[in-house]
Write a sequence for this structure.
């Protein structure tokens, strides 16, 4: 079963390419995918009927009780035959139905096959949570299929309506499934849940109201999916979809999901009063309302749509009634409805395809022009009307027989309602065939295109299937009886002739009443038109949407003021109110004693951090606030150290340093003050709000500690880290081994964030050349602007050691040395010889230290993250000392290369163990002896950590290139800041004219900046 799902998924992904290559003929090949599911189910018939149910289990999320458990019983077997068989026929129909020049056929084919796969998973899974996953997948794919004609407003509105209604029901169903699973002791196996409920062993200690409430929630999902009142209005609107979608989703697949859910849970819950009344009210109401509305429709698809609502109501009543005989009739009707309704929808598509209209007032004489279509439609309509010997008649007769011999007053009430609904069904079935094929006086016979054999194949096969199933009631009964036997009550029978009795007499009355309604159709239409308009569910739905739109607009106007402080205040106040309320309810968990600190030094540090935070809240200058914020951050790092966590202290210090630099880089383009109006009230408000939030979080932390009843999970980390991660540094082993999946996700987010920030900052191509001093020198030489005594850095780089330097080019008195390659590109007022010399002395040591942290981090403080931050800080200092051209000399590599290489290395290190029989991200240890290093204890997690190291360096380099170098360049070009680079006439050379003459044609050089830096 899982293999079939994988085949559907692969086919759905490949469908757009296949359709693009082979056109609409690709539908014939894609039909083999759901067809394979139907063939497989047919091959399992013997085992299923013998009770040897095929079962397949694959663990997914064991902690949540979610696994891929599949089970093919009789109900699932029947649904797979319907979903796969009808799906294959409809895909074959698509090969002729769609024009060869139709657009988006690849997307349609992919969504269709994916929907078939989702339905296959839905009806075979034995896990209720997995069922919900497949349930919502069908919702998503049906949304895409219903809205296939996305350029039409009707299609878009219908798709939105369907997904909103069915998603609402799906969420309610999820809550009900979770509640039932927890009541059943945490078991989410559907078969076990239903068995426990049928045996009366479901949640013996649970509150009596829990099970009925959960059952109502599950039924909300089923009724909304099957378009039962009050959710019925979405189905007629969905007729805006292509006809193959209507034939599959609204006859054999999507709407059948709700019926399947009722049939699946009915053996265990049908004896509940809330279940029975919900099923009867919704089902019988839909049966009567749908039939009544179908009698006044002129569009053939709308007539079938309302007829579908009516028929689904009947099936839900039968399979949810809780009686074995009635359930057998319901299962038979489930199969019969899929055959005749899919055939009728496809026949409507043929009519529309041939004559260009579905309005029965404009159709006449098609029975003579399209005799094969007319015969197929007659068979399908006869089955829908319950005329012998069709499958619909056999199922309906069995239902009437079981209800007539029920013996309860409710059985007779249901029998009468079913009879009335069946009479309406006969009437609109006759209306359909008459409207589509009979000659009508005064109506011109429309010109019809010649139909192909391919487009006729599917409806003919389905209509013939309705006849064949009806002629074999005994075989149908043998196939469906095992599941019907899981219901209480006397078993029923399927037969073409049950003798003269209440059922036969009711059938005769139904046929007579239906023919009479059709014969008096004009009078019926007049009566219907005279009925007053009643505000229906569709109007309520639209009113509810308008209310939600208005409410959202009001809330948005109230909260979205364009003020970041206002947004943060709302968020923090919400935390205080909600979390504070929870804290008040946990007052009994307050610990017996609270230790304020381990040493007075911790209290002193906390006081400094609090004072700095208070001053941040009251600060008006941005730079002052950032520096004070840095004091708080370094104070927290000191607290880590005093608490005995040097690794965390090191990481916090490095992160705080990089963050401080990033803040300062951004502040260069922001005003010096937060506001031009120094309002003391707002500053005090910020301080008070921050203090209250801090107190709230602190109190919740203390309460959470007091409420703990189990041993912390961190207690096992030391042993786990050493035994499985082969390291003594618990923090680093946790990052690269114990919680490596989290780290993998985090570095992926880092790569995405860095890419996003750079894309917002860069005006030129981010993947272009790197700013280097040699390029700037070449550009200045071309423009002749190296004058005024300024040295040429490129010449300095080219000068042989020991050669004489003119006095005007001396950088440091008495020495002919260039400390930083890009230093000479800076304007004199930007240079610091002490800074350049000091950086030259420590830069390489910082890089070596970063590598040391990388290699030692598994057993000592450090690791890839800390090492990458140290290397990043080295690049930051290099940029601060020498400017953006010095950054290019220090790291002549694009940040994207480092980010991508790091992510690739980390992912590769995680996948390699799986290729040699291990698990993803599994670590192993290698002990080797090297000549100089001696015994080396190497854990393979080092390769994963190296990927983290490269990602962090790439992130810092990307920040420097975007928020640093690129902001510098843009500021100079716009004239918003004094130029950092040294040249005599900045108006003569554009800063981005950097490539050497042989790397770019003269016409490709950018236009010089004429006013940016004066």
């Amino acid at each position: 079963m899982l293999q079939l799902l994988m085949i559907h998924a692969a086919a759905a992904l490949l469908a757009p390419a296949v359709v693009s290559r082979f056109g609409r003929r690709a539908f014939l090949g894609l039909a083999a995918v759901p067809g394979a599911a139907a063939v497989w189910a047919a091959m399992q018939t013997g085992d299923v009927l013998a009770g040897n149910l095929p079962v397949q289990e694959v663990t997914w999320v064991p902690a949540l009780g979610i696994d891929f458990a599949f089970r093919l019983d009789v109900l699932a077997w029947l649904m797979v035959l319907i979903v796969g068989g009808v799906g294959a026929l409809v895909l074959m129909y698509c090969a002729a139905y769609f024009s060869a020049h139709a657009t988006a056929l690849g997307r349609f084919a992919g969504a269709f096959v994916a929907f078939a796969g989702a339905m296959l998973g839905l009806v075979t899974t034995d896990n209720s949570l997995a069922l919900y996953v497949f349930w919502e997948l069908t919702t998503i794919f049906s949304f895409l299929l219903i809205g296939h004609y996305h350029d039409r407003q009707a299609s878009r509105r219908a798709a939105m309506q369907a997904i909103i209604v069915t998603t609402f029901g799906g969420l309610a169903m999820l809550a009900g499934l979770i509640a039932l699973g927890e009541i059943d002791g945490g078991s989410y196996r559907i078969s076990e849940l239903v068995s426990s409920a049928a045996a009366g062993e479901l949640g013996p200690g649970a509150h009596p109201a829990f099970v009925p409430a959960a059952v109502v929630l599950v039924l909300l999902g089923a009724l909304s999916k099957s378009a039962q009142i009050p959710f019925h209005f979405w189905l007629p609107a969905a007729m805006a979809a292509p006809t193959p979608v209507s034939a599959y989703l609204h006859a054999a697949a999507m709407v059948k999901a709700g019926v399947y859910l009722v049939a699946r849970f009915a053996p265990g819950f049908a004896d509940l009063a809330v279940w029975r009344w919900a099923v009867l009210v919704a089902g019988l109401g839909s049966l009567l309302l749908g039939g009544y509305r179908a009698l006044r429709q002129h569009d053939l698809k709308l007539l079938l749509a309302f007829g579908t609502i009516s028929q689904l109501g009947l099936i839900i009543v039968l399979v949810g009634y809780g009686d074995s005989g009635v359930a057998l009739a319901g299962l038979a009707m489930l199969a019969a409805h899929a055959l005749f309704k899919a055939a009728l929808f496809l026949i409507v598509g043929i009519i529309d395809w041939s004559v260009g209209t579905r309005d029965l007032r404009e159709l006449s004489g098609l029975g003579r022009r399209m005799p094969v279509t007319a015969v197929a439609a007659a068979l399908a309509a006869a089955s829908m009307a319950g005329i012998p010997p069709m499958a619909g008649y056999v199922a309906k007769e069995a239902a009437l027989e079981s209800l007539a011999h029920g013996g309860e007053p409710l059985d007779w009430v249901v029998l009468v309602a079913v009879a009335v609904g069946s009479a309406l069904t006969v009437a609109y079935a006759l209306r359909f065939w008459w409207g589509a094929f009979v000659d009508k006086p005064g109506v011109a016979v429309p010109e019809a295109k010649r139909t192909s054999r391919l487009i006729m194949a599917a409806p003919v096969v389905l209509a013939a299937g309705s006849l064949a199933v009806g002629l074999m009631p005994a075989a149908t009964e043998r196939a469906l009886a095992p599941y019907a036997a899981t219901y209480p009550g006397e078993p029923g029978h399927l037969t073409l002739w049950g003798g003269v009795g209440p059922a036969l007499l009711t059938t005769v009355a139904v046929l007579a009443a239906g023919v009479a309604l059709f014969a008096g159709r004009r009078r019926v239409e007049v009566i219907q038109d005279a009925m007053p308009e009643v505000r229906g569910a569709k109007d309520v739905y639209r009113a509810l949407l308008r209310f939600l739109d208005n409410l959202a607009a009001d809330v948005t106007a109230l909260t979205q003021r364009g003020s970041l402080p206002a947004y943060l205040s709302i968020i923090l106040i919400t935390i205080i109110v909600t979390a504070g309320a929870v804290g008040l309810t946990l007052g009994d968990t307050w610990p017996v004693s609270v230790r304020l600190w381990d040493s007075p030094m911790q209290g002193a540090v906390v006081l400094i951090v609090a004072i700095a935070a208070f001053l941040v809240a009251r600060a008006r200058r941005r730079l002052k606030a950032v520096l004070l914020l840095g004091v708080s951050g370094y104070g927290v790092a000191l607290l880590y150290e005093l608490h005995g966590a040097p690794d965390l202290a090191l990481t916090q210090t490095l992160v705080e340093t990089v963050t401080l630099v990033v803040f300062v880089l951004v502040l260069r383009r922001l005003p010096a003050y937060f506001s031009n109006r120094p309002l003391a009230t707002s500053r005090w408000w910020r301080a008070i709000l921050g203090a209250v939030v801090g107190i709230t979080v602190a109190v919740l932390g203390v309460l959470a500690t007091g409420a703990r009843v189990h041993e912390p999970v961190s207690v096992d980390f030391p042993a786990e880290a050493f035994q499985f991660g082969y390291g003594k540094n618990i923090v680093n082993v946790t990052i690269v081994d114990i919680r490596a999946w989290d780290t993998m996700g985090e570095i992926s987010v880092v790569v995405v964030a860095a890419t996003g920030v750079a894309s917002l900052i860069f005006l030129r191509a981010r993947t272009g050349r790197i700013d280097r001093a040699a390029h700037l020198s070449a550009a200045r030489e071309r423009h002749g602007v190296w004058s005024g005594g300024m040295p040429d850095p490129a010449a300095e780089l080219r000068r042989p050691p020991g050669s004489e330097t003119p006095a005007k080019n001396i950088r440091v008195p008495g020495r002919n040395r260039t400390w930083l390659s890009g230093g000479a590109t800076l304007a004199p007022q930007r240079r610091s010889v002490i800074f350049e010399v000091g950086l030259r002395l420590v830069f390489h040591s910082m890089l070596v230290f970063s590598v040391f942290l990388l290699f030692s981090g598994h057993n000592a403080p450090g690791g890839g993250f800390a090492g990458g931050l140290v290397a990043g800080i080295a690049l930051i200092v290099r940029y601060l000392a020498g400017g953006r051209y010095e950054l290019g000399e220090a790291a002549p590599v694009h940040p994207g290369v480092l980010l991508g290489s790091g992510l690739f290395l980390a992912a590769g290190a995680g996948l390699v163990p799986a290729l040699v029989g291990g698990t993803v991200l599994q670590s192993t240890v290698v002990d080797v002896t090297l000549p100089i290093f001696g015994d080396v204890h190497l854990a393979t997690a080092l390769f994963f950590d190296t990927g983290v190291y490269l990602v962090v360096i790439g992130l810092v380099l990307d920040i420097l290139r975007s928020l640093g170098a690129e902001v510098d360049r843009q500021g100079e070009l716009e004239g918003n800041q004094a130029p950092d680079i040294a040249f005599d006439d900045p108006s003569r050379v554009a800063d981005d004219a950097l490539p050497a003459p042989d790397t770019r044609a003269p016409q490709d050089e950018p236009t010089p900046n004429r006013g940016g830096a004066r």
Remarks:
- The first strand starts at residue 55 and ends at 61.
- The longest helix spans residues 941-974.
